[in-house]
Amino acid sequence: MSIRIGLQLQPQHAEYSQIRDALRAAEDAGVDVVFNWDHFFPLYGDPDGKHFERWTMLGAWAESTSRVAIGEEDGGPDYDLSLLKEWIAWRDPR
């Protein structure tokens, strides 16, 4: 049995370059999978602070990595499926 290591990066209150650097550091450290989350605004701190939308972030992460698996947590069964379909239609199938 092998152990896989996962990490959640919370895409809030940071520049994208900082989030990308954390993602690359996780990949370089041997993390197997990195997740972001399903929120449209920061969950703590300034409610008007920086925050990146999950599907856009996954596209950026796919461009920035070569080995680590990427995904989003709790995809939300309450989404309009036609909208959800448009969001994910273009993502990297790694």
Automatic annotation (TrEMBL):
Keywords, ordered alphabetically: Monooxygenase, Oxidoreductase
The keyword Oxidoreductase is assigned to this record: yes
One GO molecular-function entry: oxidoreductase activity, acting on paired donors, with incorporation or reduction of molecular oxygen
Coiled coil residues, start to end: none
Pfam families: Bac_luciferase
Span of domain Luciferase-like: 6-71
Protein name stated in the entry: Luciferase-like monooxygenase
